[in-house]
Amino acid sequence: MQNFLQILVSGISVGMIYGVIAFGYQLTFATSKTLNFGQGEALTLGALVGFTTVNFLIGMSLGTFWAYILALPLVFAFGLVQGSIVELLGVRQATKIKSEAGWIMATIALGIIFKNIAENVWGKDPLKFPSPVSEAPLTIGGVNVRPMEIIIVVGALAMMLAVELFNRRSIYGKAVVATSNDRDAAGLMGINTSRVITFSYALSSLSAALAGVLIAPITLTGANMGAALGLKAFAVAIIGGLSSGLGVVVGGLILGITESLTGFYFDTGYKDVPGLILLLLVLSFKPAGLFGKAAIKKV
Amino acid sequence: MLEIKNLVAGYGKVRVLNEISISVPAGQLVTLIGSNGAGKTTTLRAVSGMIKPEGGEILLNGRNIAGLASHDITRLGMAHSPEGRKVFSTLSVTDNLLLGAYPRLTKMRPKGDVDADLERMFDLFPRLRERREQLAGTLSGGEQQMLAMARALMLQPEVLLLDEPSMGLAPRLVEEVFATIKRLKAEKITMLLVEQFAAAALEVADYGYVMENGRLAGQGPADKLKNDPAVRAAYLGTGS
Description:
The structure holds 2 protein chains of 2 kinds. By secondary structure, chain A is mainly α. Chain A has one domain (20-236). Chain A is 73% helix and 2% strand. In chain A, strands 1-2 form a two-stranded antiparallel ribbon. In chain A, α2 runs parallel beside α4 (102-122), α2 (39-59) crosses α8 and α3 (64-96) runs antiparallel to α8. Chain B folds into 2 domains: 1-77 and 158-240, P-loop containing nucleotide triphosphate hydrolases (Rossmann fold, 3-Layer(aba) Sandwich); 86-156, no CATH class. Chain B contains 11 helices and 10 strands. Classes of the chains: A mainly alpha, B alpha/beta.
């Protein structure tokens, strides 16, 4: 039982990371029916920018915790800019000529370019990201929990909650929801829907960058850290449904926990298998995702 | 107020509109009638920027708006209640109305009193007041139509484009919609109304245009058109 709870804890923190990245997929899918296949690289770059900033601030004789906190705004700003670049350079050009698949290639290509940049600037070797909190685990009810794992869960939920509040409460957020509902009608309201889509890409990369700096302290940082995470988060987005905010959290937790359980009770080499089988099952039986609503159109 | 001159538009290579000229003077209700597929909806879509016109001019208060993006045209004071209503189904009735006032709430148009206008819409459409917190997607067709009209009015538009407000509604609701249009007319709101119910549209309008296969086939004061034998035969279903 103790083992099981222990596995659960590590599964939850990884699952929340998947959830945040998948949330980013949802943001752009909602407004534009496209998504950034370079999301993993957005995560990588966010983590690496965070790595350099945190180390710089520590060099200015700041404590690791405050260095981490102060680095966050810069990481977020970087994510916003990086996401906007992806939309303006990749997606917009492809959708303008009404290319069905152009945005897929364009976002993959940009992802590769970003990865090459990361390799050249930060090197190919994994780097140790300074942990903002103690790495010694706390014991809660006999289960070891690393403080960073708590920060991951809180940070991930705070991010999603903030976006949800923005969408519900502010007129700009409502404009984003309106664009997701019906782009033509949103345009008739005076909403610049192209700008809304750029914004959703910016926010999507911001969430990936946040995921990057959340997970970096408990793994290693490097040019290759994002690829697998981005792909698994894509599976999460499909499992949970590309239209459901709750879905990505639950989907992320399902994948994170099954991975940990399989790794512990069966074989680490097979830890990706159950999640992917689940993905195949969802695609066959509930293609809109576990929490997705099948599209209903009133004519 | 709104002056459409020799408008040419279509979809891709298919030309739908040929040299359409329509004039909507301030404070007047002008209707565009014609059978299915005549190009009425396409005309409105070109005017509000949902499709790019290929030729001609669209003057709003003397300014040529042809070719502008729809959000820019809206900010200049053109509201469009589109065909198929297009309400924001996952947002509440109130949020839909607030989005109608988006340019005002984001200071791209004079703000005025948005809350008072919201109340005014609820007075004009009491059903919407009852359902203000409900998601727009859960409304009946008639309620959605009222919401689409109210949402367009929230802009405090200079010109209101109404596309088939009676479409798909039960006869009792059609009467209600036309009663509302009459009230808006009494408030001197400038409107261009597209309708398949030609008789009802000519009943409320000041002036009418008849459209056929993407061209104008006739025009005149509404009460004259109403009694024109050719129009009666073709569109009012009272000919022999």
